[in-house]
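note to self — DONT lose this again. spent like an hour looking for the file last time. sequence + predicted structure for the chain T wanted, 341 res
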Amino acid sequence: MTRTIITMTLLLVILLPLSGAGLREYESRQDELVVYAYDSFASDWGPGPIAVESFTRETGIPVTMISAGDAGQVLQRTILERDRPRADVVIGIDNNSLARAIDADILEPYRSPELDAVPRSLHLDSEYRLLPFDHGFFSIIYDSSVISDPPATLEDLTREEYENQLILMDPRTSSPGLGFLFWTIAVYGDEYLDYWERLKPSILTITDGWGSGYGAFTQGEAPLVLSYTTSPPYHVEYEDTTRFQAAIFHEGHYAQIEGIGIVKGTERQEEARQFVDFILGRSFQEVIPQTNWMYPAREDARLPDSFDYAPIPETSLLLDTYEIEEHGSRWIDQWVEVMSY
């Protein structure tokens, strides 16, 4: 009995401060705008810290940006919290996951006036629940010090010479992983599962997110990795090397349009709208190329010279949003089944 009383007392001593700390943290955020973003956006080298500092300096509105994993995890967390949202703004839901976000009814419509500077081809949603802030093309990046004859088609990736040479990402947790899955569907149609069967010997590993996958690639674990045509400019800009290059495929490249949205139910709607306007403003849009390594959504935003090393595919591939909404879950389930054995 004495031990029980002592144990309960110790638990109260431990838990009460934790409870108080959690309450203080929640209270301290009552006047702050809370933004969920994917890891690379929110990282020290990403555009997130610049956005937070610049926006607060311009408006006086404090911002807490929370790194919530890869883009797929950002969406999942927002859906899980929809009955009691903690975030006011979400960054990273893209054209491939928009249908899921719409189905979950987690986004508040808002047409920013800054959208006038964004080409209609990048507009994601006629009701403006998700607004485009950048875009790019998925690509296989190869290490030219290892590979002299890079793949030129998706089918080339299945060649015996690439056995255990390719790093991909999981479509359930990663937006590049989902984009690559849809890329194979856009090219192979109903036969995409047969393609994945042929591709399996080439895959060294499938990571949860882009960061861990690309990090393994740059550390030399494999000479091929799923990324973007805009990845080589990073190495040119900061490492002064053209060693890592984007393979351009004859059948085209799947496009990604990343969006920003206001969380439905937020009590800071006006502040959230100001933040969306800021992200789509020209000043911040010109930060994106050298921090997020994507093309800015605005057509009047300038690109750095290093983007001369980002090849532009002749053909852009996209699946229809409603097609994704209707078949997306089944496609992923079928992919999991094929890759599980």
